[in-house]
């Protein structure tokens, strides 16, 4: 929300960040389901008078915004995806409050996973996994909608089938060309769904939750290749593109995907001194793991007919 006041441009929004909520659903057969969400909400509304005239009459108190998260969590009697929860919150804020023209809802789901004991799924036991399911939803009063989902912290590594050759060489270049190295990254993925209004989102329960798992599987499978032979990666850039292309090729309800894949280097270890020129001589075996500095490699891939 922007406005011109005193010859100045004032842009503003308000909301509540990092509202944490846990929700359990207990099936009659004794099986429990659990999610933990960290919710950040931004409301777009004309609150300029609060900034310049000490008039708070258009403000939804951020405390009320926080309380709403708990009320809506209580009202969800059935298990639902983090995206559907975000859309429900956005719908509420834009329809319940006259001044609110749009709501931006970001949620990070903590990766609680059902434990297995002796191979059997536990009815009410969960342990923390690693990568996180995230979403950002923008809902407008008109009912128009943007849904973005993503993965954060998907750490993957291959001990071979990776190289890097043919890059620019100049007087500052020390890096040798190689067809044998470790490649490791922590994938951050973010993809956009094509649904443009609340009425066009699929009614299938847990649709977004299933799609999240599908996308994660395609990303992981493409990174690693088949279990026996793997797949050769000529660069992180090439692997990133293959991963993005696989997702867009497989899921027609995804219009674009952004991938961030830092190159987490594993440096060869060679140790020597004057007496012993090769105490440790690197033979693709002993590495110095580093995450600082790291290569930063990111790209967005969209269908050309997409609106993004
Ligand atoms: O896959 C890679 N891409 C790069 O752009 C790059 N740069 C670098 O030093 N090593 C690598 N590896």
From TrEMBL:
SUPFAM superfamilies: Tetrahydrobiopterin biosynthesis enzymes-like
Top-level EC class as recorded in UniProt: oxidoreductase
InterPro entries in UniProt: Uricase (IPR002042), Uricase_CS (IPR019842)
Pfam hit, one: Uricase
Pathway as given in its UniProt record: Purine metabolism; urate degradation; (S)-allantoin from urate: step 1/3
A GO CC term assigned to this protein in UniProt: peroxisome
Record bears the keyword Metal-binding: no
Catalytic reaction annotation: urate + O2 + H2O = 5-hydroxyisourate + H2O2
Enzyme Commission number: 1.7.3.3
Localization per Swiss-Prot or TrEMBL: Peroxisome
Family: Belongs to the uricase family.
Protein name: Uricase
């Amino acid at each position: 929300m922007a406005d011109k006041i005193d010859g100045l441009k004032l842009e503003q929004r308000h909301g509540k960040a990092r509202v944490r909520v846990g929700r359990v659903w207990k099936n009659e057969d004794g099986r429990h389901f659990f999610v933990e969400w960290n919710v950040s909400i931004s409301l777009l509304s004309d609150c300029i008078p609060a900034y310049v005239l000490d008039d708070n009459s258009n403000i939804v108190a951020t405390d009320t915004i926080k309380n709403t998260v708990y009320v809506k969590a209580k009202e969800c009697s059935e298990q639902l995806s983090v995206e559907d929860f975000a859309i429900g919150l956005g719908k509420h804020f834009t329809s319940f409050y006259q001044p609110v023209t749009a709501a931006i809802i970001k949620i990070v789901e903590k990766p609680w996973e059902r434990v297995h004991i002796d191979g059997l799924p536990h009815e009410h036991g969960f342990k923390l996994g690693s990568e996180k399911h995230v979403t950002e939803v923008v809902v407008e009063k008109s009912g128009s909608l943007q849904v973005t989902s993503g993965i954060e912290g998907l750490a993957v590594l291959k001990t071979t089938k990776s190289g890097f050759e043919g890059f620019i060489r100049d007087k500052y270049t020390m890096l040798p060309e190689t067809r044998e190295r470790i490649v490791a990254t922590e994938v951050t993925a973010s993809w956009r769904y094509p649904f443009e209004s609340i009425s066009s989102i699929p009614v299938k329960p847990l649709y977004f939750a299933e799609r999240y798992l599908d996308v994660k599987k395609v990303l992981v499978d493409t990174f690693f290749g088949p279990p026996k032979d793997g797949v050769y990666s000529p660069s992180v850039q090439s692997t990133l593109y293959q991963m993005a292309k696989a997702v867009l090729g497989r899921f027609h309800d995804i219009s674009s995907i952004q991938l961030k894949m830092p190159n987490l280097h594993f440096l060869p270890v060679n140790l020597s001194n004057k007496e012993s020129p090769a105490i440790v001589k690197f033979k693709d075996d002993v590495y110095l793991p580093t995450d600082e500095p790291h290569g930063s490699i990111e790209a967005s891939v969209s269908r050309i007919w997409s609106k993004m």
